[in-house]
Amino acid sequence: MADTTISQEDFLKFREFFYRKTGIHFDDSKRYFVDKRLIERIVATESVTFRSYFVMLRFETSGEELQALTNLMTVNETYFFREEYQFKCLVNTLLPEIITSKKEGQLLRIWSVPSSSGEEAYSIAIYLLEYWPGINHWDVEIISSDIDTKILAQARNGDYSARSVEKLPAYFLEKYFRRKGDAYQISDDLKQAVEFTKVNLMKPEDVRPYRGFDIIFCRNLLIYFDDLSRRTAADTFFDALNPGGFLCLGHSESMSRISSLYQTRKFADSVVYQKSKEAQ
Amino acid sequence: MPLIKQHISKSIEQDQRKRERDCTSLELQLSDPSSAARRWAARDLISCPEATGALVLQLQQEDDSSVREIILTTLTQLGDELAVASLVGYLRSEDVALRNEAIEAMKLLPDEVAPIMGKLLIDPDPDVRISAVNILESLRHRQVEEWLTKVIEEDPHVNVCATAVDLLGEVGTTSAQEALEKLKTRFPDEPYISFAADLALKRIRST
Amino acid sequence: MKRILIVDDAATVRMYHRIILEGAGYQVLEAINGIEAMEKALQEPFDLYVVDINMPKQDGYGFLSDLRSRDLPQTPALMISTEAAAADRTRAYAAGANLYLVKPVKPDELLVHCRLLLGEVHP
Ligand SMILES: C[S@@+](CC[C@H](N)C(=O)[O-])C[C@H]1O[C@@H](n2cnc3c(N)ncnc32)[C@H](O)[C@@H]1O
Questions:
Q1: How close C62 comes to chain B (CA, Å)?
Q2: pTM score
Q3: In 3D, which of A117, A209, A123 has the Cα closest to residue A169?
């Protein structure tokens, strides 16, 4: 049987390591949450002690165990039409403003990160189809990313619980989903419309290819980060955006304590952050 | 349906080919005419521990604030001695924005900044001392209270003391009480100081 | 009731100013830096801003220049800073301040200048 006690010192060492890898910071109150998941992985990998597990975690070349552990440590809570006011803002204000500086036939690009199980990205797709007349003239690409590979598989799969679709008007549920026992399966058309990719926002190699976006949604992630990771994320989005592009944060998140790169814009439905049109 | 899937996997591949970039060429790109290129170089230099010198040099002449922010983030992540020394230099800058950016960066580097704190707190320039007190806010060092107490006992400048009292209200313990009482008599004509000292005392006594 | 926004990163300073201004019958809101102040300014109207200079993320100069360049009501602003040098005053006025005081301010001094900017007394 494995010796699965985790000392305070072990916790601190692990916390620092995990923070550097993912940007996610656990304060002392999360001790129980962290210990429980660590022990689960120590047992699953048949490591004898925390120490031997930690050595393996740090030196494995494949990154497989780190991924498995990360999948356990993330908080994936999400649902359809969460913070819906922002989708209203998207179709009423942001997209109309973006297209004024686009040429006919150019592609509009939206990045929804973190995706978690995909509800946010699919909600955006539904909103565009239902509420944005421009969809008949413009091509839109929606990319959605997360660090958690298990949750990404779920997103691509598109099966949702009753709870996850609770906020959706019945009419949309009927139009875009198929009942499958207790679950709701999203339509193939919508699945075709969103590309899900694995991205660790704290990893420069991962984020580098993500550029040229007109709108980025980053909601309910920064709350899990510490100051430096938040700032790194804000810097990353700045370069991922086109000049004049918009960044939408969750309702409890504000740029005011993170970065001064953006201009604050207030619209009827929401506060959003903009990369200046003059910026390169 | 006009919602389309591009082949992002293809664009990722292309990008990786472009990106075989070594530290030397990244340092050169720090002075590229395009600010986007400068930002990307500053960001990628995170994997070059030797790059601090080049980043510091560029920061001195960089006038695009978006590039400055990223250089400072990278310097903070590198966090070596040279990085800290250059940040200290910016505390003396006439440029308020740069000064505040340096303060913020130093707040994120408690272990590196602690050893030089004693010196900063007796700097002849009161603005540097105010900045130093502001940095203490996030230092979580066992000496913080001692430092702050010394400031309010000895610093001749009212605004340096004012900044220190604000913080003592958060981190102070009973050992700061005497100094707080004394401070009120050092600046008897400043209602703000009495207000702040009393507030700090109240907080200390209620915990 | 007239509404005043206090912009300062030091909690004690905000509280001190708040007590003085609320005592005189104004409604007071607070922001910890220029960006937060702008978020508030965009959402609701104010009659006066009381703004510090040295603040993280966006300093007082930055906030006022941004405010003055936007299509918003040109609400008066009182700048309060630790800097006594003439150059700082000049810069504050250039950024769009209407008056400039040096910290620490006495309660009467703060009130008189706020009333002046609110048009309640005349010089
Ligand atoms: C609470 S969900 C937010 C989902 C959705 N955006 C929403 O607002 O409902 C947070 C997600 O952040 C992901 N995450 C955590 N750290 C990350 C990182 N460094 N890079 C990318 N995603 C990360 C987690 O896997 C999790 O799925």
A1: 8
A2: 0.86
A3: A123
